[in-house]
Amino acid sequence: MGEALGLSEARSVVQSVGKAFAVLKAFDSAFPELTASQVAERASLDRGTAFRLIKTMVELGYMRGVPGSKRYRLTLKCLELGFNALSSSDLSTHAEPLLREAVPDFADAGSLGVLERGEVVYLQRVQTGLDRHGFDRRPGSRTGAYAAALGHAILAYLPREEQVAHLESIERVKVSERTLTALPDLLSRLQTVRGQGYAVSDGENAYGLRTVAAPILSPDSRPLAAVSLTVQSSRMPLPAFTDAAVPVVRRIASELADGVRLSRGAIGVGRPL
Fold first, then answer.
1. Count of alpha carbons within 13 Å of 230, Cβ hemisphere only?
2. What is the pLDDT of residues 204-255, one digit of tens each?
3. How far apart are CA 71 and CA 99, in angstroms?
C-alpha cells in the first residue's frame, strides 16, 4: 500500500490505519457498493481482515450495509474527512504550509502567483533571509510575467495566441542584463518550459536570485497558477539548486492541483489583491 518507505519510517507506520484507508478507497464511482469479498480483493487484504474493518467502519458510521444484500457502501459521514481539510477554500491558504516546508531547507523564499493581463500577481509568499536584496514580493504585489519564472511556468501552458496577447499587453523592459524582452526569444523559452515542465530564472527578475517554478494545472490542463522557490545565488550554484528544488516545487504544484481536482471547486484560486 502506497510508496515504499525507509526502514525507520516503516517502523513508525501503523499498518492497521493503512488497511482501514485501503478499505475506504476500495469504493469509488464505478463501485459504490461492494461485498466484503470484493472489498478484500480491491484493498489487497485477506477476507477476515477486511470483514473486521468493515464492521468497525459500520460501527463508527462511515459505512452502512445495503438492505436486502451482503453489500456495503460509504456514508455521507466520509465527507467530513474531506471538508475538514477544505474548510479554508482558498488556494493560497493551502499553499502556505507546503511552501513553509521548503523554506529555508530548499530555498530562501517560496511563492504562489497567478497571471493577470501580462503580470504575475503574488497570492502567497514565504520568505527568509532576503531582506538585504530589498526584494518585496508580498501578496498583492505584481511583476511582469515575461521576466519571472512564475510567469513563464503559467504562460508556457497557454495557447500561442494567448501567450502573445499577455506578452504584448505590458511594456517589456530589461530588469537585468539577463532579462529576455524580444518576443521570439520569449516564445522559444516558453516552448522549452512546456517541454521540461518547469521554468528556471537565473538573475532575470532580480540580481543575485535564482528561481524555479512549476504550473498548477486544472483537470483539463489549463494553468490555474504557479508555485516557485527562490534562492540567493551565493547559497548554491544553479545546477545544484535546480537539482534540489525542481522535484520539490513540482511536488507542491502537483499536490495543489490534486486538491483543486478532488475538491471539485471547493478550493478556489482566489482573487488577486
1. 27
2. 988 889 999 999 999 889 999 999 999 999 889 999 999 999 999 999 999 8
3. 43
Q: Which residue has the cell 478507497?
A: 25
Dist CA 189 CA 178 (whole Å):
13
Using the structure block, give the residue that is written with the C-alpha cell 516558453.
Answer: 190
Helices assigned H by DSSP within the chain: 7-12, 15-25, 36-42, 47-60, 79-85, 91-102, 149-155, 160-167, 183-196, 238-263
Per-residue pLDDT tens for 182-206?
A: 999 999 999 999 999 999 999 998 8
Three-state secondary structure call for residue 267:
coil
Domains observed in the chain: 7-83 (1.10.10.10), 91-263 (3.30.450.40)
What's the whole-model pTM score? 0.73
